[in-house]
Every structure is written in structure tokens, then in C-alpha cells.
Design brief:
Length: 151
Amino acid sequence: MRQLGLPIPPIILDYATIAKNNSLYNTLSVFDVYIADLVLQGLLKAYENKVDGQQAVAEQKAKTIYSALEAHPQVYEIVPHASARSRMNICFRILAPKAEADFLSGATAIGLQGLKGHRSVGGIRASNYNSVSVASAEKLASYLGAFATSA
């Protein structure tokens, strides 16, 4: 194609790449597709109103967590401005120096996992994805209150 002066197609359409990879260059992993199917089927069963139902639950969970944070402004600082807050990734800081490690170890002890923020930014990041249950969001909100009163 280069010799003919034709535009170079995306790599996925390059016959040499396809031949070199035994036609498997763009084949999806069957296991990954199977797991994605299971997750999607579970979400479709869990939410009667499909996307609208998922959105309503996501907003409810986010409101529960943000309310717990806002109830203790002397302990927690919500990182983004209220107009830019995410329902899915709730980022905040603990104002007391060195209290973040205590918060994270206490959270881990009661089964709240993956709350540590990005390694270059720090802070706390609660991921509130669709697969996170309302009960888990309530558990985090309860822990936020308990930690704030013990701090």
C-alpha cells in the first residue's frame, strides 16, 4: 500500500499483522466476554428500569456517602467542588495529619477495600460503581460517621 501511495489502514486491517498472529490479533478473550455477560445479566436482573434504575441507585448511594462526609466538615474535605462531584468516584481527604492511614486500616478491618487514593495524589477514593450494593455504600457512610466521632 505504501508503494502505491495509498493511505495506511489501522493496524487491525493490516493483512501482515493478521497473518503474523494467525488471525488472532483482535480476538477477544472468551473468559472476559463470559464474565462481562454474567455481570450484565446480573445488572439487568437487579434493575427493573434498566439504565434509569441504575442511575437512581447510583445517585442514592452517592448521596448517602456525600451526606456522611458533609456531616463532618471538621474531619473530611471533599476534594471536588459540589458542582463537579462524581457519583462513581467519591474523592475526599482526612484533615487530621497522618489520620489517613488509621482510616484506611480501620476500613480494611471491616471489609471496606480499595479506598486508597491515587499514588500521586493521595487522599481517599471510594469507587461507587454499579456493582457496589446500597448496603456497601451505607456501610461506608456508617464507618465515615464512626471514624469522625472517634477522631
